[in-house]
Sequence to fold (319 residues):
Amino acid sequence: MSVYTPVKSAQLHQFLARYELGKLLQFTAIASGITNTNYYLDTETGGFVLTLYEHHSDDELDYILGLQQHLVKRSVRCSEPVPDRRGDLFSTLNQRPAAIIHRLQGQVQPEPGSLHCAVVGAELARFHLAGLDYPGIRPNPRDIDWVIAVTDMLDANLNARDRQLIRTTLQAANQSDLDGLPQGAIHADLFHDNALFIGNELGGILDFDYACSGSFVFDIAVLLNDWCIDNRGGLVTSRVNATLEAYQQQRCLETVEIEVLPLMLRITALRFWLSRLYDKAFPLSGELTFVKSPDSFRELLELRSSQQNETAELLFSQR
Fold:
């Protein structure tokens, strides 16, 4: 949510004329995040987030924003785009596609506990179920083919141990039938800073930039690798159990999903390691920019690879 495309006051007022939001009271740039330009908007009718999309095509935004609208109609707690007077969910601002999103209430939980994990696990399952009849399709923009391509691009930034770690993970992925896993609309980026809580109640899920069509277990692996770990990256049994048990109260995992989870933990760690390494190696320019360190996910991938048997034993107890 860095600022790559500044918005002037006159541009914003002209853009807001498309909406029925009342008088603009304040707008403030948001410095955290990576992908897009974001501003907080306060108007007479409430609080919103203005997003200028730096990389998404119109087709991708049709999927992302349409999915959010679809989920909200099915009572999934997530950020909701605001339609303009014509019913459009995005238009153009300063030569970028732009949308206004209702600002969710709540705060990020910097150290989520078992209760928070259970709440978000249950909501993720409701997300997956609610998205089953969503007609849109968006291939995962950060799939295995992307991993292979980016690995080649980052070769100068990798040492021999890095390359071996990537190679063994890709070999394991190629030996598994990932395409045969249950699939549908997924968030694909549900870190703890992409969910807000009001006390112990979920305010909602936000940041759908990477939402796509993919395997449900990919989403679960992202969740476990971020919400359910100690300060060394080890899985915390109580949080893992709380997450998976709450998820399965809404949607039962198939045996094949549970069996592939240890591998998917490695694949998602690899995906976010390379994504952050790419952002570090090829930074975008902007007024306010924020790049997350890739090191923690490299370490996480190494840990998940070395503790595959222990991880499997923990996760298989959910069968």
Remarks:
- The chain has two domains: 9-102, 114-316.
- The mean pLDDT is 93.
